[in-house]
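Design request, tokens follow.
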């Protein structure tokens, strides 16, 4: 949901920063100002901006002064944080405003700003990783550190701004838009009960549709209708329209907008159907990771990632392993790229499945993710978790409850989770919970080292068995790949060389594209990315088809060629 009409002030730029000296009570008074240690850029992770901060995990304090022009006086001000990793607590002019847990969903706090004089905004950020964090872990490095394989960055890593509204405002907006132009929008407001709520749909400034939403109950307004003259949203043709909601009390109290797309996506008879046509997903798992910026993917790199995915003939990706920034997903909406939106529930173990409080926390994270991104045409499916220990019986009720939570919040999209098929193989107990089965395979890399013949045989056996058990569910391959250090070569292909990665990917794609029930092939990963330090990583996870600076390895050519052929209708149908 975007807001600009009544006023918005970005707070990106340099912020004062200091690590907490530690010890109980040491933080006292910091919210009234402190001596800064460094001047850091926001948005970005703190880690790579200054070498001394690379491995800092713990509490850190950020401060920023800003002045709100007198012209805004009389409006209500809100601080909007798009993402702070991991816990945030916020003070304005020494007054506590509130906090938020979770690094990859946005939050908003009402901010009693002073007008025409300096405001001091202080944010306490704590990225201490615990077994009860989402995602969980115990520290920064090695096997016993994070329970996940990507670097645990910290800081204010997504944009921050002040937004202004009147006495009534939009809390939540849920839009369903079909390929034939049918539209339904439900608006939940906060503050004073509005007099009127208007919804309109614009095509490059031209009004295609407008109407007053009817009051359904206190604070809830809905409108349903047919928008004429639209073209459906499709793969490679991300036709978006601006849906605007104007809330009036005596005058305009709030105005928000979203870019929506008219499209239908469903899973029927084991097929994925977009606007009634069968599609096959071709693409990657990605990461929001870039040198120096850390977990913030600057916009030019977002553009580069999509340009490279297009060159590689990909039509989709998964937001492994956390919901991506709005900028990234806005780009997917506009480029016509299909997205599996994954929650940051990665590394869940037995201890989590027994923990009711943890389950509730996970549900909260899922609900924040869905409320934030549900109006995006690009998002076709939700992944509730990556590689939980779903070979355990205890995982089943836990994952079932997560899946049902998602379905009750948004019944329009199918639910999946990615199975650690490499470990669980055919013994995954929870596959029945998902509408679509997602499997991650690493034979030929973590097992059967260097033996691609045996690896492919093994993957084939496991895959056939899963299909035999769930003949009516579509199967996606959400991960497979091999590490390759760019510039390392060998003939015959050996592990860690570009040739081995290219050969493994090529053989896996040939196998998967020969199976009619495999409805998606996602390579791990689009790019090399930063991980915890350990003996099994060469500074980075090297499974990218591109390097961390987005240059191609040998595998890129193989992928472009194979995906290109599949896109044109090789194997089972994709686009007509
Ligand atoms: C999978 C995980 C992914 C890892 C990948 C790997 O889902 O996060 O990065 O393995 O080891 O199990 O490269």
């Amino acid at each position: 949901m975007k807001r600009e009409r009544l006023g918005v002030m970005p707070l990106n730029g340099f912020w004062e920063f200091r690590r907490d000296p530690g010890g109980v009570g040491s933080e006292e008074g910091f919210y009234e100002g402190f001596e800064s240690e460094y001047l850091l850029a926001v948005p970005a992770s703190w880690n790579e901006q200054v070498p001394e901060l690379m491995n800092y995990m713990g509490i850190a304090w950020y401060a920023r002064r800003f002045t709100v022009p007198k012209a805004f006086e009389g409006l209500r001000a809100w601080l909007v944080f798009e993402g702070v990793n991991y816990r945030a607590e916020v003070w304005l002019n020494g007054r506590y405003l509130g906090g938020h847990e979770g690094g990859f969903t946005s939050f908003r706090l009402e901010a009693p700003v002073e007008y025409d004089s300096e405001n001091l905004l202080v944010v306490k950020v704590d990225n201490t990783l615990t077994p009860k964090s989402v995602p969980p872990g115990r520290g920064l490095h090695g096997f016993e550190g994070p329970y996940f394989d990507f670097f645990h960055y910290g800081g204010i890593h997504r944009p921050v701004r002040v937004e202004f509204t009147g006495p009534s405002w939009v809390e939540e907006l849920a839009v369903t838009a079909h390929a034939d132009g049918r539209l339904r929008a439900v608006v939940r407001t906060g503050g004073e009960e509005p007099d009127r709520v208007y919804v309109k749909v614009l095509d490059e400034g031209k009004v295609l549709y407008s109407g007053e939403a009817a009051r359904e109950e206190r604070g809830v307004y809905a409108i349903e209708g047919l928008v004429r003259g639209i073209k459906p949203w499709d793969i490679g043709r991300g036709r978006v329209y601006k849906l605007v909601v104007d809330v009036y009390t005596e005058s305009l109290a709030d105005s928000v907008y979203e870019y929506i797309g008219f499209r239908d996506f469903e899973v029927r008879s084991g097929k994925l159907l977009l606007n009634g046509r069968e599609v096959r997903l071709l693409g990657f798992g990605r990461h929001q990771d870039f040198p120096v910026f850390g977990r913030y993917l600057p916009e030019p790199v977002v553009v580069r990632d999509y340009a490279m995915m297009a060159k590689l003939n990909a039509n989709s990706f998964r937001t492994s392993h956390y919901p991506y920034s709005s900028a990234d997903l806005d780009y997917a909406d506009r480029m016509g790229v299909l997205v599996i939106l994954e929650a940051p529930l990665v590394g869940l173990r037995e201890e989590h499945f027994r923990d009711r409080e943890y389950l509730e926390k996970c549900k909260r994270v899922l609900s924040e993710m869905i409320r934030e991104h549900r109006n995006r045409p690009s998002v076709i499916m939700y992944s509730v978790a990556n590689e939980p220990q779903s070979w355990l019986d205890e995982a089943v009720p836990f994952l079932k409850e997560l899946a049902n939570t998602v379905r009750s919040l948004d019944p329009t999209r199918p639910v999946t989770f990615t199975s650690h098929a490499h470990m669980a193989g055919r013994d995954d107990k929870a596959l029945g919970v998902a509408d679509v089965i997602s499997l991650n395979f690493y034979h030929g890399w973590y097992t059967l080292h260097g033996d691609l013949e045996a690896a492919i045989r093994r993957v084939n056996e496991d895959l056939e068995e899963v299909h035999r058990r769930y003949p009516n569910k579509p199967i996606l391959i959400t991960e497979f790949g091999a590490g390759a250090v760019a510039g390392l070569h060998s003939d015959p292909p050996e592990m860690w060389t570009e040739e081995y990665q290219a050969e493994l990917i090529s053989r896996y794609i040939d196998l998967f594209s020969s199976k009619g029930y495999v409805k998606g092939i996602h390579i791990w990963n689009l790019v090399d990315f930063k991980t915890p330090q350990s003996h099994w990583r060469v500074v980075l996870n090297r499974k990218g088809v591109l390097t961390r600076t987005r240059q191609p390895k040998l595998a890129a050519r193989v992928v472009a060629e194979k995906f290109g052929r599949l896109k044109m209708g090789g194997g089972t149908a994709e686009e007509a």
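Comment from the thread starter after seeing the answer: thanks! The chain has nine helices and 34 strands.
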